[in-house]
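hey so u asked for the seq, here:
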Amino acid sequence: MQNRLETLESILDRLRSSIKKNGLKNSKQREEIITVLYKSGTHLSPEEIASEVKVKDRTTSISSVYRILSFLEKENFITALEADKSGRRYEIAAKEHHDHIICLNCGDIIEFVDPEIEDRQIKVAHKYNAKLVSHNMKLFVFCEKCQKAK
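ran it, structure tokens below
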């Protein structure tokens, strides 16, 4: 798990400000989704998020979760990762930069940071007289567990 750049409380404070700025009603479901993602420290599907939120609020529907995830992503509270054919998975955005290794068979996601790769990307951008602003690296693999199972 990567280091957090922000506490849960500061993210929730920003969320409340964003809700007010957008003229929306305060919603415990939005806060609960942020809390679930923050505490999980991993990448969750909308269904996994809905299941966790339903523990505290039985009235939560999957359509509400999708709607809230869309808002939270648009407002940069969370980021989506297209891991595999099973759909998007979400993580809290308030983490240090990292890249992902994704198993094509079981869908496991591993976060990693490699200083050599980071340095090499900057050098490649400079080689083409470009300034690197951002990047998103995903390595698609068959993990050790899945290789052994075959």
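The mean pLDDT is 88. The beta strands are 78-84, 87-92, 99-103, 109-112, 138-141.
lmk if thats what u needed
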